[in-house]
TrEMBL record:
SMART domains: GAF, PAS, PP2C_SIG. Residues 529-749 form the PPM-type phosphatase domain. It comes from Streptomyces erythrogriseus. This is SpoIIE family protein phosphatase/ATP-binding protein. Its main location: membrane. Residues 343-511 form the GAF domain. InterPro entries: Bact_Sigma-Reg, GAF, GAF-like_dom_sf, HATPase_C_sf, HATPase_dom, PAS, PAS-like_dom_sf, PAS_4. The keyword Cytoplasm does not apply.
C-alpha cells in the first residue's frame, strides 16, 4: 500500500508516468467512441446507397418486367412482385413507374397512380441515379434505374429506397456496448498503468527528478571508467562528449569537447566517418600502432535530432587471434570442399583440374598438376618417363608457367624433381634464392620471378606406393612466403586428390580394356557386296562399355543380312556376351534361315547360356538381350525383317518419306517359348534402311516416342548418302555424355539390273538338259563370261540332273551376274543333296564333288515350298558395280 501511495502522489518519476498513461487511455477511449459514431453514420449512408441501387437494378432486370409494363394492368402484375422484393431485400419501398413518373406500385396502395417524388431525368436517359431526400418516412436514400426493352429503349423506371435509420440501426445498437466497455477498458488501463509505474518505480528505486539527476552523474562517472571509448557528436560534427577511453585511443587534446572533429588531429579516414554521421558497424581503422573497431549510430534513428554516438574498442590483439582462427576455419572448409568437390568424375584430367580450381585463389595464386604420360592412359607410372602438364589454374592467364599439355622432365635439383625422387613435399619459400629450381629452365625461371611468383610448394601425388605425378602451388600476390603450416595443408589437399586420381586411373585402364575387347568383337571392315551401300557408326557409352553390336553378312543369291543387337548392361560381361551372340549369328546365317527362325535359334542359345551360368552367382544372366535381323534381296527388292525385343527399323524412301515399318515385336532373347514373326517389305531402289540400338532414341529424361520422332526429323532432313544420314542422325542426338552405347547402320538399297538375271524353266525330261546348256552358253557369251562356260555347263547339268532324279517338279534355273556368277536350281523337294566320295567301283556319286571343285562355294537354301541348290564362281575379272 505504501508503494501504491507513492505511485499515486506523482512526486516520483513513476507517479508522473502513471498519470500520463491514465490521461492517454482516457483520450483514446473518447476518440474511439467519436470515431465509431462518425464511422457508423458514414457506413449507414453508403450501405443505403448500395442496397437501394442493387435492389432497383435487380428488379428492373428481372424476367417479365418489360412485358408487365406493356400489359393492360401493370399494377396487378407488378404490385405483388414489388412487395415481395421489398420484404426480401429489407428496403422501405420498391416503386415501379412509367416514363412519366406515375407509380404502378407502392407499399401504400393509396399512393399508386400518383406522381413519383424524386429525380428521374438521368434514368430516362439510361443512367441510374442515387439521391438522398427527406421523405414522409424520414431521411432516406433512393435509387432510380431505367427498364429497357430488348432494343435499348427505356419503357419504365424502378425506384428502391431505404431510410438511414433502418440501415444504421446495427451500428447504433453497438454504441451502448462500446460505451459500456469504455469504463472497463479504463479500469484495465488504470491497472496496467499502475503495474507499469510500479515496475518503473522498482527500477528507479522511487527516485524523483532530482534523484535521477544525481543518478545520471553517477552513470557519467562510470562512462569515463569503462574500457571502451564513447564519443557523442552533434549534427554539425562538433564533439559533445568523449570519455576517458576515447581520449586515450584517439589521443584527443584536453579541450576536445566543443571542437569540430576536423580540428582534433585525427587521421582522414576516421575524421570522415565521425563527421559524416553515417551508420558504421565494426569498421576497423589503423590509428598509430592500434587497430580500432568503430561502431556509430545516430542519436535519434527517426532523425528529429541530428547527431551520432560512436563507440571505439581496441582490437589489435583480438584481430590477430581472430585472423588465425579465420585461417583455420578456411582451411577446414577447403579440406571439406576437397572431399566433396574433387573426384566428381572418373576422368583423370578432370579430377586434376578440380584440384587446381579448388586451390585457386583460396590457397595459392597458381596451381599446376603434372602427371606421368602412362597415368593418363590408365597405366602404371614410369619414373623414367616424362610428365605432362595435365591441369593448370591461376588468378591470371598470362603467367609464364609451362602451359597445359606441355611435356616436362624435371631436373633432380628442382623442387618437383626432389619431390618425385623422395616422395615427400618440398617447400621453397624464396624462389629468387633457389638455384636448384632455377636450373630447370633459367630463362623461364627468370620470367616467373620477374612476374612476381616468389614462393613454391611441390607435393608428390602418391597413391599407396605409386607416385603418379607432382602438384605445384605457386604464390605471387600475397607477400608472405608459404610456411610449414601451409605445407601441411598442401599435403592434405594432394593426398585427398591422389585417391580420386588413382581411382580415375584404374577406371581408365579397365574402361580401355573393355573398349578394346568390345571393338575387337565388332566388325573391323564390312564384307564386299553390291546389294547395299552401307555406312555405320558405333559410339561407346561414357559410363562404361555396353553390349551393342552390329554386323553385315553376305548370303547366297546376292542377298545380304543386316543385324544389330544389344546386351543389356555394361562391362566386360556384356561385351563378352555380345561377342558370343555375334559369333552365333554368323554361324546361323550360314544355314540361310528366315529371320524368324534364326532368332528362334538365337533365343534357344541364350537360354542355354543362362542355364550354364546359373550356377555362378557372380555372373549375371543374359536376359534382356535384343536383336533385329534383316535380309535384303537385290533381285526382288524385298526385305524380310524380324526383331526380338528390339526397336523397329526406320525406312527413308527415295521420295523423302520416313516411316517405321510395322514389324511384329518378339520378346527379348532368352525368355523362350514364344515364336518370332517376320515382316516382308518391298523397297524401292535407293531406299535407306536404318537399324539402330535403343541408346540412339532413349534416355532417362525422355520417352522412346520422343527419340523416334527426333530420329524421323533427322532422317527427313538428311542427305541421300548413308554417310550423310549417319552424320545427321548423330548430330540430332541430345548433347552431353551418352549413358548407353549406340550402334547405327544406314543401308541404301540397290537392285540387280534385269539384264544381269537369267531364268529358265526346265521340264522333267533329260533331253531338256542339252537345251539348257545351249541357253546358258548364249547368255554367258552375252555377258562376256565365255571363260566360265565349261564349268557353268557342268555345274548346271549336275544340279539339274539331281533335281530330276531326286527332286520334284517344277524345276527352275536362275543365273545371276553379280560379284560372282551365281547358278541356282530350284525344285519342290525338301531333300538336300550330300557330298560324298565315290569309290572306284561306283557308277555315280561324283556330281556334287565336281560342283564343289568347280565352284568357289555352294550350298542349299530352303524355301517354304522346296529348296534351292546354289553355286558361286569367281569372275575372270572384277565386275562393274551395280547401278
Amino acid at each position: 500500500m505504501a508503494g501504491l501511495r507513492s505511485v499515486l502522489t506523482g512526486r516520483s518519476v513513476a507517479g508522473q508516468v502513471f498519470f500520463l498513461l491514465l490521461v492517454m487511455v482516457l483520450l483514446l477511449v473518447v476518440a474511439a467512441v467519436v470515431a465509431l459514431v462518425l464511422q457508423a453514420q458514414r457506413d449507414s449512408t453508403q450501405e443505403a446507397r448500395n442496397r437501394s441501387l442493387a435492389v432497383a437494378e435487380t428488379f428492373a432486370n428481372s424476367p417479365g418486367i418489360v412485358e408487365a409494363l406493356e400489359s393492360p394492368d401493370p399494377t396487378a402484375v407488378l404490385q405483388p412482385r414489388a412487395e415481395a422484393a421489398r420484404k426480401a431485400s429489407r428496403v422501405d419501398f420498391v416503386v415501379v413507374m412509367n416514363t412519366d413518373g406515375i407509380r404502378y406500385t407502392h407499399p401504400r396502395p393509396d399512393r399508386i397512380g400518383k406522381q413519383f417524388v424524386g429525380t428521374v431525368a438521368p434514368a430516362l436517359a439510361g443512367e441510374p441515379v442515387v439521391e438522398e431526400i427527406d421523405g414522409t418516412i424520414g431521411r432516406l436514400v433512393q435509387a432510380v434505374v431505367p427498364v429497357e426493352d430488348p432494343d435499348g429503349k427505356v419503357v419504365g423506371l424502378v425506384s428502391a429506397g431505404i431510410t438511414l435509420e433502418n440501415v444504421g440501426g446495427a451500428a447504433e445498437a453497438q454504441l451502448p456496448l462500446v460505451l459500456g466497455a469504455a469504463p472497463a477498458a479504463l479500469a484495465l488501463a488504470t491497472g496496467g498503468a499502475a503495474l507499469i509505474s510500479r515496475r518503473l518505480r522498482h527500477q528507479t528505486h522511487g527516485l524523483g527528478p532530482h534523484e535521477m539527476t544525481r543518478m545520471y552523474e553517477h552513470h557519467d562517472a562510470v562512462l569515463h571508467a569503462v574500457r571502451e571509448g564513447v564519443m557523442i557528436l552533434d549534427g554539425d560534427g562538433t564533439l559533445l562528449l568523449a570519455n576517458d577511453e576515447a581520449r586515450r585511443l584517439f589521443s584527443l587534446p584536453e579541450d576536445a569537447e566543443g571542437r569540430h572533429v576536423r580540428d582534433l588531429g585525427l587521421d582522414p579516414a576516421t575524421t570522415e566517418l565521425l563527421s559524416s554521421g553515417r551508420t558504421a558497424t565494426d569498421e576497423v581503422f589503423p590509428v598509430g600502432d592500434r587497430l580500432l573497431a568503430v561502431n556509430q549510430r545516430p542519436t535519434d534513428p527517426a532523425g528529429r535530432h541530428r547527431g551520432s554516438v560512436t563507440s571505439v574498442r581496441d582490437t589489435t590483439e583480438l584481430r590477430a587471434l581472430s585472423g588465425r582462427a579465420e585461417e583455420s576455419r578456411e582451411r577446414l572448409n577447403m579440406l571439406y570442399d576437397a572431399g566433396v568437390g574433387i573426384g566428381t568424375s572418373l576422368d583423370v584430367a578432370r579430377t586434376a583440374q578440380e584440384l587446381s580450381d579448388l586451390a585457386v585463389p583460396r590457397f595459392a595464386d597458381f596451381v599446376t598438376v603434372d602427371l606421368f604420360e602412362s597415368v593418363l592412359a590408365g597405366g602404371q607410372p614410369d619414373a623414367a618417363a616424362a610428365l605432362r602438364r595435365t591441369a593448370r589454374a591461376g588468378v591470371d592467364e598470362d603467367a609464364p608457367l609451362y602451359p597445359r599439355d606441355h611435356q616436362i622432365r624435371f631436373v633432380e635439383s628442382s623442387p618437383q624433381g626432389r619431390s618425385l625422387a623422395t616422395g615427400r613435399a618440398v617447400l621453397e619459400p624464396r624462389l629468387d634464392e633457389a638455384p636448384g629450381w632455377q636450373a630447370q629452365d633459367k630463362e623461364r625461371s627468370a620470367q616467373v620471378v620477374e612476374y612476381g611468383v616468389h614462393s613454391l610448394i611441390a607435393v608428390p601425388l602418391r597413391a599407396g606406393s605409386l607416385v603418379l605425378g607432382v602438384v605445384s602451388f605457386w604464390r605471387s600476390r600475397k607477400p608472405e612466403p608459404f610456411d610449414e603450416e601451409e605445407l601441411a595443408l598442401a599435403e592434405e589437399l594432394v593426398a585427398r586428390a591422389a585417391v580420386s586420381i588413382d581411382n580415375a586411373r584404374r577406371y581408365t585402364r579397365e574402361h580401355s580394356m573393355a573398349v578394346t575387347l568390345q571393338r575387337s568383337l565388332l566388325p573391323r571392315t564390312l564384307p564386299e557386296q553390291n546389294a547395299l551401300e552401307i555406312a555405320y557408326r558405333y559410339l561407346p557409352a561414357q559410363a562404361g562399355v555396353g553390349g551393342d553390336w552390329f554386323d553385315v553378312l553376305p548370303l547366297s543369291g546376292a542377298r545380304v543380312a543386316l543385324v544389330v543387337g544389344d546386351v543389356v548392361g555394361h562391362g566386360l560381361h556384356a561385351a563378352a556376351t555380345m561377342g558370343r551372340l555375334r559369333t552365333a549369328v554368323h554361324n546361323f546365317s550360314a544355314l540361310d534361315l528366315p529371320p524368324g527362325e534364326l532368332l528362334a535359334l538365337l533365343d534357344e542359345l541364350v537360354g542355354r547360356i543362362d542355364q550354364d551360368e546359373a550356377q555362378d552367382e557372380h555372373v549375371a544372366p543374359v536376359i534382356g538381350a535384343t536383336c533385329l535381323y534383316v535380309v535384303y534381296d537385290p533381285v526382288s527388292r524385298r526385305c524380310s525383317v524380324a526383331r526380338a525385343g528390339h526397336p523397329p527399323p526406320a525406312l527413308a524412301r527415295p521420295d523423302g518419306g520416313v516411316e517405321f515399318p510395322d514389324v511384329p515385336a518378339g520378346p527379348p532373347l532368352g525368355l523362350g517359348g514364344l515364336p518370332f514373326e517376320s515382316a516382308e517389305l518391298e523397297l524401292p531402289e535407293g531406299s535407306r534402311l536404318v537399324l539402330y540400338t535403343d541408346g540412339l532414341v532413349e534416355d532417362r529424361e525422355h520417352d522412346i516416342d520422343v527419340g523416334l520422332e527426333r530420329l524421323r526429323e533427322a532422317l527427313a532432313g538428311a542427305g541421300g548418302s548413308p554417310e550423310e544420314t549417319c552424320r545427321a542422325v548423330l548430330d540430332a542426338r541430345r548433347p552431353g555424355k551418352a549413358a548407353d552405347d549406340v550402334a547405327l547402320i544406314v543401308a541404301r538399297t540397290r537392285a540387280l539390273p534385269a539384264d544381269r538375271i537369267a531364268e529358265w524353266p526346265v521340264p522333267p525330261d533329260p533331253a531338256a538338259v542339252g537345251e539348257l546348256r545351249a541357253a546358258v552358253t548364249r547368255k554367258l557369251a552375252e555377258w562376256g563370261l565365255d571363260e566360265l562356260t565349261f564349268g557353268t555347263e557342268l555345274i548346271l547339268s549336275e544340279l539339274v540332273t539331281n533335281a530330276m532324279r531326286h527332286g520334284g517338279a517344277p524345276i527352275q534355273v536362275r543365273m545371276l551376274y553379280e560379284r560372282h556368277l551365281i547358278c541356282e536350281v530350284y525344285d519342290s523337294s525338301s531333300t538336300a543333296p550330300h557330298l560324298r566320295y565315290a569309290t572306284m567301283t561306283d557308277e555315280g556319286g561324283r556330281g556334287l564333288f565336281l560342283v564343289a571343285q568347280l565352284a568357289e562355294r555352294w550350298g542349299t537354301r530352303y524355301l517354304p515350298a522346296g529348296k534351292v541348290i546354289w553355286a558361286e564362281q569367281n569372275l575372270p575379272e572384277t565386275p562393274g558395280t551395280l547401278s
